[in-house]
Amino acid sequence: MVSLQMWPLFLPLLLLLHIAPPAPAEVVRSLSACDHFLLDKTPPMVPGVLEDGKILNQNRYKPICQTYRNQRRFVTLYDVKNKIPMFSAYRYRGEVERKRPKTHWKIEPQLENENAGKNMVGRNTTEVYNHQATDTDFRSNRTFDRGHIFPSSHASTRDDKLSTFTLTNIVPQAGTFNKGSWNRMEMCVKCVMDRYCVNGSGGTEGFVVTGARPSSSKVLNNKINIPSTLWSAFCCYSSRMEAWVASAHWGANVPDDSRHKHLQTKTLAELYTQLRMEDSEFNLFPGSQCPLHTTVTNLYPELKKCHCPASSSPSLTSLTSTSGLKSPYYAFWGVLFILVGYD
Predict the structure, then answer these.
(1) What's the longest Cα–Cα distance across the chain?
(2) Are 235 and 339 in contact (CB under 8 A)?
(3) Any idea what DSSP says for residue 233?
(4) Share of the chain above pLDDT 70, in %
(5) Which of 134, 188, 206 minimizes the C-alpha distance to 165?
(6) What pLDDT sits at residue 259?
(7) CA–CA gap between residue 85 and residue 73 (Å, rounded)
(8) Which ranges of the chain does DSSP label H, i.e. alpha helix?
(9) How many CB atoms lie within 10 A of CB 114?
(10) What predicted TM-score, i.e. pTM, was given to this entire model?
(11) CB under 8 Å to 73, separation ≥6 — which residues?
């Protein structure tokens, strides 16, 4: 037992224990808590949403350090109003486990209760989820898949792959688009990163940011926004080429009009032009050495069985110029479709 004489020494310690903040958990206040998934530890620049690393509306946009089995796997900026991710960012390290794991859909408990555990968990059938989608929201529809933003095929270990099956990493995606042109783009980019994204230490390393542009009114199950566009981009240093390489893709979230459709590879500058606002610049890799005006299409002939497009096509029509976007949020999503795909 502590003597009365010792209590003055213990009181300051007890006060510190009482007021000390909890350890960082999955839903955090800033992307800086998970900046190791971002190139140069620098968040994207998204006008009106995420500027200079600051989230402008923290009640709506929630940064999630996606945590599975007590390990952070990737980072997501989640829109609790539309109940879809704005984007997920991850560091590609190559596949250790190539087999797709059995699907067990999970939710983020701290979006409902900030005092909940930090690990993603399965849905509790007795609870109501007001700030995120659940697997039941996608049932009984024959049009939309649960489309991954960070695809499981780009995750490294089995646990990394399992972590991608959280509904905070999912959007309603047209089925043939998800399994078709988006999937082929995803496989092509993966081939490029496997072969050319080798850092100075000899390890595979590429940085990817992928997201979705919400529609103005389309919803699934009277709850979840159905994005009008998906987008993705990657950048890496290639010690093999002694240069930085990057490319981008985007596409409308509608059924593919052909079984052999490919998304055309674009430059980062083309993507940024689509997404920029007047007097506001959009940038997925700010302050980096990522090339703005070149793509990796010249590497495609060397890649076999990678589902890359045979050649470039004319520039796609600007989505932002025809969609009547009025808010910074919708202008941002006007054309981001770079690197996500079918699981």
Answers:
(1) 82
(2) no
(3) E
(4) 82
(5) 134
(6) 93
(7) 16
(8) 7-19, 158-163, 175-179, 181-196, 268-275, 328-332
(9) 10
(10) 0.84
(11) 66, 67, 90, 155, 159, 160, 163, 164
Looking at residue 172, its pLDDT comes to: 98
Inter-residue contact 92 to 207 (CB < 8 Å): yes
**Hey, which residues does 46 pair with through a beta bridge?**
50
Q: Where are the beta strands (DSSP E) in 239-285?
A: 243-252
More confident site: 100 or 1: 100
CA distance to 17, 55, 120, per residue, from 21 (Å): 9, 21, 21
Least confident span in 58-62, 85-89, 308-312: 308-312
Amino acid at 27: V
Residue pair 35/209 in contact (Cβ under 8 Å)? The answer is no
Which residue has tokens 């968990």?
121
Q: Are 180 and 148 in contact (CB under 8 A)?
A: no
- Mapping DSSP to helix (H, G, I), strand (E, B) and coil, where does residue 195 land? helix
The three-state secondary structure class of 177 is: helix
Measured distance CA(317)–CA(191) in Å, rounded: 27
- The model's pLDDT over 293-319, given as tens digits with 9 standing for 90+, comes to 999 999 999 998 899 998 554 333 333
Confidence label for 245 from pLDDT (cuts 50, 70 and 90):
very high
Q: Which two tokens stand for residue 33?
A: 């808590």
3-state DSSP call for residue 138? helix
